[in-house]
Design a protein that fits this description.
alpha/beta, seven-stranded parallel sheet, about 40% helix, 12 strands, 12 helices
Length: about 350
Amino acid sequence: MSSGAGIYLSSTGSYPRIGDSPELQLLRRTIAALDRGDRTTADLLDAENDLTRHAVAEQVEAGLDVITDGQIRWYDPISHLAGKLDNIQIKGLVRFFDTNTYFRQPVFAGKPARRGHLVAGDYSFARNALGHVPTPDGKAGKLAIKPVLTGPYTLAKFSLSEHSANGAAAPFAALEARAQAYAEILALEIEALAKVGAELIQVDEPAVIKYPGDWAVFENSLEPIVQARDKSVASGRRLEIALYVYFHDCAPLYEKLVALPVDIVGLDFTYNPKLADLIASTGSPIPLGLGLVDGRNTRLEDPAAVARHVERILPKIKGGCAYLGPSSGLEYLPRDRAFAKLELLAKSRAALTG
């Protein structure tokens, strides 16, 4: 979708993969049965498809404008992508930031190679699922599916490289080498996503605000991503890149973030209560993703308070365009609370406009 003035309600990525009802327990039961040898990978695919349809439908029901597939198929944000590449081995579990979740760590055994699509097929499935969901009056044909990719720097930061057999430095021992290798592969995926109809792609780079000393490595790794976008646009396709950061205070890097050659920057407001003041004072030259609803806390915010923050920030954003959403993906919450958070977005926009 092409950004225009106004407030769009947007997912920030993941959605819980289980719920209280038997039908929302399907994926967990299928994974357990697969581990016992009682189910097949085809059964797992069916369960993932079913839960993806549920995730899409619930986002539509909550009133969102920009929807994801809920990342239902993702085991974690790192190994889901890296594990699909040749010459990458997936090793032990490592904690993912300060969450209670873990990722399986990729290890470079050589130059990684893409052997097929990473998420383009998942995006196409979710878009088709959206086409079968009844939409609220006035929204038919206006909802967008947004694929999500973990960015090259964050993938590289949480990956390792094997040592060379002769004791020499491994080709991918350097963080920058790993980041560039991932960036080249993700650029190909972005081109593939554009070809199957994606107009907005979210690229997650939470690690850069935790490790600001790596800014140059991060910025260089964005170049192939931006070039892939520009190539797609030059070919006549509409495509925007939304860079999202979360799980740390982004205020010290705010001005650098909004100066990047991306179309949208998504921010987590939960780590710094003065971030809204900073944006209201400094402004933004590009649309922003406003993570004003805490994606990791079950407490529900006051819609009027959220609306007041948006009201202060929106006039300072060039073009008056913002994407209101959770501070991060919602996989950290119980499903009923995650849905309530999405409903809260709609209530906040209603409080702002009404």
